[in-house]
Design brief:
By secondary structure, the chain is mostly beta strands. Helices cover 0% and strands 53% of the residues. It has no helices and 11 strands.
Length: 114
């Protein structure tokens, strides 16, 4: 299983980005898909998770600003990031999970700075 994340970059505070994660297999083979991030010098943290059966959950710090979605036809997961803040600066990772197995993509760097 391969996951390829893209879409990171440098953006000013208040700006937006859309991250994409392309999965090499049928995305509905997994139980859930998630985005995590690791700010500089900090531990990796969960940002958003979406069970493929439906529903979604977000970290309190991003509720109302970020949105996770899945395109089953393209086997792609997205994370829309709006109203970005400097504290959103991090390497963002996508993850696919089934039972105890987790598959990770390489991270994509998001830098929020003026």
């Amino acid at each position: 299983v391969q996951l390829q994340a893209s879409g990171g970059g440098l953006v000013q505070p208040g700006g937006s980005l859309r991250l994409a994660c392309v999965v090499s297999e049928n995305i509905f083979n997994f139980e859930d898909m998630a985005w995590l991030r690791q700010p500089p010098g900090e531990r990796r943290e969960l940002v958003a998770v979406m069970p493929v059966a439906g529903g979604e959950a977000y970290a309190d710090s991003v509720k109302g600003r970020f949105a996770i979605s899945i395109d089953g036809a393209e086997n792609t997961m997205y994370l829309q990031l709006n109203n970005l803040k400097p504290e959103d600066t991090a390497v963002y990772y996508c993850r696919a999970r089934i039972l105890s197995r987790q598959y990770w993509g390489r991270g994509t760097l998001v830098t929020v700075s003026s």
